[in-house]
Amino acid sequence: MAVTYGSRRTVVGAHYGVRDWLAQRVTAALMAIFTLVVLARLLLTSGPIGYDKWAGLFAGQGMKMLTFATIVGLLYHVWVGMRDVWMDYVKPVGVRLVLQIVTIIYLLGCAGWAVQVLWRV
Length: 121
Prior knowledge:
GO terms for molecular function: electron transfer activity; heme binding; metal ion binding. By secondary structure, the chain is an all-alpha fold. The protein has 4 helices and no strands.
């Protein structure tokens, strides 16, 4: 007769935390690379920095693609972080679901606005 002590723990979603941890690190690295590229291009620009310089910085297709990838990374980074905050600190399931839906709607709105601004340049 086998004796067991305590409750049997069921683990759901193995490596779920590792995936989110890695996603946060990869998206943070992408944002850091983007920041360094923008700073380098601005430091190499001569003269006063006005609208024309900013528009010129983001006018090239390569910079638009890097900016778009950074925006997508930033939105995913924010989603993972906010979802974890809601899951850790908001215990009523209904309130948590509403907050997650509001967060998704807000992030989709930000994505639409960012893409509109980016491709208007």
